[in-house]
């Protein structure tokens, strides 16, 4: 049976059905629709004001590649300028290849690129060194705990270095739904209540952060990369397989098979959760060492580095069981959802 006509242009043959709506579209109309939906997310959420200098967290992977490409397409309409910021965590055999993909993207799209390295920012610590130091203490899980905290700090430092006013990351709807699930599984009500929204407003001197792809499904991110013929790096980090997030991902796949709207339902459920006043954590203060937002004397990054430098990484991880995130979202107040007078993307 021949493919149906594209439901948008009614000229070309459809090349795909949108995973959630079933709408049949040709590749060009799908990409234009995807870009329009990201534009709507940014404009309705007031995520990136005109004149913003935007640091795009670039990892070379599919999400940040699609994000950089879409924002580059939208930049004239949004009146923003872009700067790719890549973080070299120091993971041998993995990050070098991913950074090569980022360099190719920067050259092809004529975007400025700055690479910041853990080793330079954190007193010589690389993720490989952290892994060696934490070996025997649940290494892989620990690695992602350390890495998530340090990468957030490194991206902030890189963004400041290039004079950015805003930071964007490539988290998609599936990433966010996994995070919501992980927070449910850990019983972390405080983080659940803070985990919604499209970004954080940048309190405590931090740059405002947002996730323009947060309402886009992973499948459509992959489809966009396919139809735009984007060159990205798709190998998994050597420390990823044992991470807790993998269990949430498996669970989410099962839920999605039974209920296709499960991903967006989870994302929206986090937006609507409210904490009882008695359960609200105290407002964060400033880290006594670096001045970043902190709910204790030291911020997460300084506490982790402190433990590593004392040769007691387990101590730092132990603190993490109570106070540190494990690949979770930022512990910051969230921007509210955009007004929903326009339809939410139907995928
Ligand atoms: Fe870092 Fe874990 Fe991601 Fe690897 S999988 S880059 S260790 S957060
Ligand atoms: Zn600090």
TrEMBL record:
GO CC entries: cytosolic tRNA wobble base thiouridylase complex; mitochondrion
Range of residues in the leader sequence: none
Binding, ATP: 57-59, 63, 87, 170, 175
Keyword Cytoplasm: yes
Enzyme class: transferase
Biological process annotations from GO: protein urmylation; tRNA wobble position uridine thiolation
Span list, region Disordered: 316-347
Keyword set, alphabetical order: ATP-binding, Cytoplasm, Nucleotide-binding, RNA-binding, Transferase, tRNA processing, tRNA-binding
Domain of life: Eukaryota
Matches recorded under InterPro entries: CTU1-like_ATP-bd, CTU1_C, Ncs6/Tuc1/Ctu1, Rossmann-like_a/b/a_fold, TilS/TtcA_N, tRNA_thiolation_TtcA_Ctu1
Domain tRNA(Ile)-lysidine/2-thiocytidine synthase N-terminal, residue spans: 54-237
Pathway recorded for this protein: tRNA modification; 5-methoxycarbonylmethyl-2-thiouridine-tRNA biosynthesis
Protein family membership: Belongs to the TtcA family. CTU1/NCS6/ATPBD3 subfamily.
Record's function text: Plays a central role in 2-thiolation of mcm(5)S(2)U at tRNA wobble positions of tRNA(Lys), tRNA(Glu) and tRNA(Gln). Directly binds tRNAs and probably acts by catalyzing adenylation of tRNAs, an intermediate required for 2-thiolation. It is unclear whether it acts as a sulfurtransferase that transfers sulfur from thiocarboxylated URM1 onto the uridine of tRNAs at wobble position.
Cross-referenced HAMAP family: CTU1
This protein's name: Cytoplasmic tRNA 2-thiolation protein 1
Gene assigned in the entry: CTU1
